Structures are given as C-alpha cells and as structure tokens.
Amino acid sequence: MKDLIIKELIEHKGTFISGQQISKKYHITRANVWKYIQKLKEEGYQIDSVTNKGYRLLEVPDRLDMAYLEFDEKWIIGKEYLFLEEIDSTNSYAKKIAPQRQDGTVVLSENQTKGKGRLGRDWKSSYGTGIWMSLILKPDIIPKDAVLLTQVAAAAVVKGINEVLDCGVRIKWPNDIVLGNKKVCGILTELSGEIESINYIVIGIGINVNQNPEDFPQEIEDKATSLKKFTGADISRKAIIKAIMKYMNNYYLQFLKSQSLEGVVEVCREFSATLKKEVRVIQNGKEICGEAIDLSDRGALIVEDREGNRHEIISGEASVRGMYHYVD
User: Fold this and answer.
1) What is the gyration radius of the CA atoms in the chain, in angstroms?
2) Using one digit for the tens of pLDDT, what is the confidence trace for 50-91?
3) Which pTM was predicted?
4) pLDDT tens-digit profile of 107-126?
5) What is the CATH number of the domain that holds 55?
6) Which one, of 237, 240, 206, 248, lies nearest residue 78 by Cα?
7) Using CA atoms, how far apart are residues 284 and 51, in angstroms rounded to an integer?
8) For the chain, what is the total number of helices (H) and then of strands (E)?
9) Which residues constitute the domain of residue 102?
10) Is residue 27 classed as helix, strand or coil in its secondary structure?
C-alpha cells in the first residue's frame, strides 16, 4: 500500500491530492492514509500536509523503491523488479528465486551484508550509497556463451554511467569498470545449467556511487573509488540505474537476436582501459605478460607476448600496468 501511495504522490508531484481521494481509490481509511504519509516522511520524503487540501510531494529521497524506478513496459530487463532493504547478497538471493522468475528480473537492495566479487572476494556495499543489483537472465544459448553476457553488462554499465555523468568510466577487461585507474564497479556472472543448456544466468552489478573518501577501508582506498569521490558531487542512483537498464535491454535484445556480441564488442573496444596497455594475465595458473592489442569478435582479450606470440584469452585475471598498483 505504501508503494501505491508513493505513486499517487509522484503522479501529482507539486500539486495537492486529498486524503479522501487516496482513501476512496484504495479502500483504506483516511487515518491509515495519514499513517502511511508519516512513515514516508520518516523515510525522507518531503511531503507538505495542509488541512482541506491534502498532501503534496515536494522531494523524494535517493531511494530505489519500485515506485519511481519504473522501466519502459516494452523492456525485458526490469519488467519484474524486486526491491529489498537489506540482503546478504543480491546474487545469492537471485539464484534462490531464479527458477520461479521471468527473464530480465531485476533484484536490487539498499544494502548487502555479504556482497560477493569474483573468485569469492568480498564486496563492500554499505546502505544507501551504492547500486547493488542482480539480473536474472534466461537466454536460449549454450553454456559456453554465457561468458559473453559479462561483456554485454560491461558495455551497458559504461554507456549508462557516461550518459549520465560523462566522467570517463572505462572497462578493465573482463568485468571491472574503472574511473581514474581505480575500481568503481564490479560485475559477477554466475550460471546454473546442464551440459548443453542453461537454466538461468545471474549477473551481479555493484557500483560505488555516493561513498565519501572516509567510507573506504584503508586496504582498498588506493584501489577503489566512487562516482561522488571522483566528481565531488552527490549522484542520483536512480538516473544511473535507468540509463544502465536502457542500454542493457537494448544490448540484451540484440544479443538474443544475433547470438553474438555484434554492436557490443565495439563499445567494449571504444571504452577499454586494457587495450594498448602492458598486461599480466593469469589463467588456469598460467601467466602471460605482453600487450593487450585487441578484443576478438567474441570479447576475448588478444595479448601479444614479448616473443611476438598472440594469445586469445577467453577469461581470466588481467592486471594492467599502472592500475591497482600493478607495476610488472
């Protein structure tokens, strides 16, 4: 009911809507309307209450409730949207509910208590400062092509953030988004499937948005940043999410149609923080050092080693010289 009242206030933003109108429309008492309004005020909504006029929404907090994060009805991504105040990990929760959810479901939480990065690493995700979300996808593809969707997500994130802020975020292959040579976003893709078929794919996206410098533990302050820390201004998380989801929907539909990274790999090349750099790649315990010279049409990193041999890296850990304090 609270979400419905928020929607009414948003639709009438700047003008009054009476408690009687809300009461009649949703078959609740005016006393209950008043209680919901008080609850919304406690959550940070600025609402003007005037006798004989009703309620008028003045400002909304930077919360990610479904009420004012509605995506285009034609989109696959975000057609089903689950908002949580707190969860251990949006990816863990998304995997639990994935069998019962439709393709494109978005899970988003204000806080994660046990956020996950690649290779079992922790991801710091404090309340109300970042974007912690997971996408449940059910494409009709073979399991080995699931890795391509990490590139789809990376392209959507970098295009979305740059559209809103034009701050120069780039993609550190394969799954980091960096700003000023520091990590601002991580992408984690997880798969459930059989030998020749996929049950579902969960893509977790964690973005540091409004953290202050003191919010970063000492052990990561030289490796991580936030959009606010870099730009010096508070950022609308809602605007960032909507832009990312717009691009994600477009790129995902394109991917389903072509079964390839057509149109996406060009974005990954354009915004790459890895290409034309000295890199060290660790894959299956093997180390390759050289220059990252290109991405293949399937998003693999092509590295030319110091002997002139070329290696096509499908996945792995890539350290880029000068980034995250990698020197050699």
Assistant:
1) 22
2) 998 999 999 887 777 755 566 677 889 988 889 898 899 999
3) 0.84
4) 999 988 876 554 445 555 56
5) 1.10.10.10
6) 248
7) 69
8) 8, 16
9) 66-270
10) coil
